[in-house]
Design brief:
Length: 126
């Protein structure tokens, strides 16, 4: 990954991940290790939470398609390595939270997904 080019977004536009039973299988241990590393990183990079959780759904039988989606996140990180939080101490900030859900949105199981976003002032924190 040291020599990869960076991309602007962590997820390909209109990507629909599914179980892909006919896809080319990849090493589960490597895939799970990559997902675990990104899960740890989501504590400080809330912009990655959605795509990492989407990829994490397919840890039981990952295919090349899932691995490529996961690599896209790492390519995005390559270009945003210096991003982080900044909280100015001289301003007052309000905490605002939003939540949303899609019912039966999973392509494979028809399970629902819920997400939330919390802001301090106008900055996304989780």
């Amino acid at each position: 990954m040291d020599s990869c080019n960076s991309v602007d977004t962590p997820m390909v536009d209109r990507l629909k991940l599914d179980e892909d039973p006919l896809g080319i299988p990849v090493d589960q241990t490597r895939f799970r290790s990559m997902v675990g590393s990104l899960m740890y990183l989501t504590a400080s990079r809330p912009d990655l939470v959605f795509v990492v959780c989407m990829c994490a759904r397919y840890q039981a039988s990952p295919t090349k398609k899932h691995l490529e989606a996961l690599k896209q996140v790492f390519w995005c990180l390559r270009g945003t390595i210096n991003w982080g939080f900044w909280y100015p101490k001289d301003t007052t900030m309000a905490l605002t939270a939003y939540a949303d859900a899609d019912h039966a949105g999973c392509q494979d199981t028809q399970r629902s997904t819920s997400e939330s976003a919390q802001f301090i002032g106008n900055k996304l924190v989780s």
